């Protein structure tokens, strides 16, 4: 266990990443105010009791919300989810969202950070 802190904050223990089998990820579409469906993955620690609320870290992406890396490349890139597993171990939920008009999300992207994308 690592401890983080500085002169203004008390140190706190930083837990190691959860094992992959300790993570539950759900994929779904979230409907925006204009009816466009946005692809979302929510990762939570497995066996989290009902009603528990966690702060969430959201990562918006246009490319890599979900990926399937096959052998032999899997062995070189298998720790891509370590940040997610570490956040989960330390009390956060993790949301990964495909921006409107990219990945598995519906809609149209006329330019990066369009008005609609920002509203989403």
Terminus-to-terminus distance: 37 Å
Portion in strands = 25-35%
- Please give the radius of gyration in angstroms: 17 Å
Low-confidence stretches: none
Q: Give the tally of β-strands.
A: 6
Number of helices: 3
Shape: globular
**Lateral strand order in the biggest sheet:** 3-4-6-5
Please tell me the overall pLDDT: 84
Helix and strand pattern: EEEEEHHEH
Q: Structurally, how many domains make up the residues?
A: 1
Major sheet attributes: 4 strands, mixed
Q: Which structural class do you get from the secondary structure elements?
A: alpha+beta
Helix content: 10-25%
Supply database-style keywords.
alpha+beta; 120 residues; two-stranded antiparallel ribbon; 3 helices; single chain; 14% helix; 6 strands
Q: Please, could you describe this protein's structure?
A:
- The chain is of the alpha+beta class.
- It has one domain (2-102).
- 14% of the residues lie in helices and 34% in strands.
- It is globular and about 45 Å long.
- The model has no long low-confidence stretch (mean pLDDT 84).
């Amino acid at each position: 266990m690592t401890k983080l802190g500085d002169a203004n904050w008390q140190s706190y223990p930083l837990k190691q990443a959860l094992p992959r089998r300790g993570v539950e990820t759900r994929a779904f579409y979230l409907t925006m105010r204009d009816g466009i469906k946005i692809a979302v993955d929510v990762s939570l620690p497995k066996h989290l009791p009902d009603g528990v609320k966690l702060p969430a870290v959201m990562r918006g992406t246009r490319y890599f919300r979900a990926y399937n890396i096959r052998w032999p490349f899997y062995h070189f890139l298998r720790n891509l989810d370590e940040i997610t597993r570490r956040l989960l171990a330390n009390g956060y939920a993790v949301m990964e969202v495909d921006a409107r008009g990219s990945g598995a999300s519906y809609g149209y992207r006329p330019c990066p950070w369009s008005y609609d994308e920002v509203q989403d």
